[in-house]
């Protein structure tokens, strides 16, 4: 891990062993998030067991069994201590931990995703918002209101004060992007709205698009969309990426603005959405 002194801008690098033995090559770290609690540094480590694919096209990936470990880190002595652990899914369950994790006050949040394969022709992906409360030394879980095809996933999320907004999306056709947003109140532990639907037209969709950043500001939804185009259609190549900014009115759901983000650099740049006060 890396820590930075904000005054000197000096980086310090640490390699800290964790008290966990990987039993085989299939064990895989899937989620990680640090948090400071009572002036002590902790980290969430999610471990998937036996990851793999459920379909021949390799579009549906999931593991059988996963667990969440919470470690306290000692940077000075480069050591760790396991303080809490929870089996999130048994070894026969089709479930894993998402790479989405965040913190709010004294609580770590992370996401469990599972596959309902009772109907092989219409498999569904389901989600739980899980958390670890440091003050009460307790794991909790909250069902998430997403019911989507197994090859879809949560596209993005954003924490704004005491709210977290999740975005799921689907390419309806080559030039239409359908999105659903759900907001969870972290302070009161309840869903404020679920699956608010937005649709936008995307003219530049050659070989795939993705939403790389999102944010609500002054009742407007701001999105940065990445469009990829591969020069070689028959083999692997580095894609040409173009990025666009979209602004959508939250109430009317109308597209207020769309425009390309110019990047004069030859390297890939991942822009963020900031207010004037944050610059």
Describe the protein's topology.
Layout: E1 2-5, E2 10-13, E3 28-37, E4 40-48, E5 51-53, E6 61-74, E7 79-104, E8 107-116, E9 124-133, E10 138-143, E11 148-149, E12 154-160, E13 163-173, E14 176-185, E15 190-201, E16 209-217, E17 220-229, E18 240-249, E19 255-261
Antiparallel strand pairs: 1-2, 3-4, 4-6, 5-6, 6-7, 7-8, 8-9, 9-10, 9-11, 12-13, 13-14, 14-15, 16-17, 17-18, 18-19
Write a concise keyword list for the protein shown above:
mainly beta, 0% helix, 2 domains, four-stranded antiparallel β-sheet, nine-stranded antiparallel β-sheet, globular, 279 residues
Question: Summarize this, please?
Answer:
This protein is mainly beta. It has two domains: 1-152; 154-279. The chain contains no helices and 19 strands.
Describe this structure in words.
The chain is mainly beta and 279 residues long. The chain has two domains: 1-152; 154-279. Helix content is 0%, strand content 62%.
Point out poorly predicted stretches. Answer: none
Calculate the mean pLDDT score and round it.
Answer: 78
- Kindly, what is the distance between the CA atoms of the first and last residues, rounded to a whole number of angstroms? 26 Å
Shape: globular
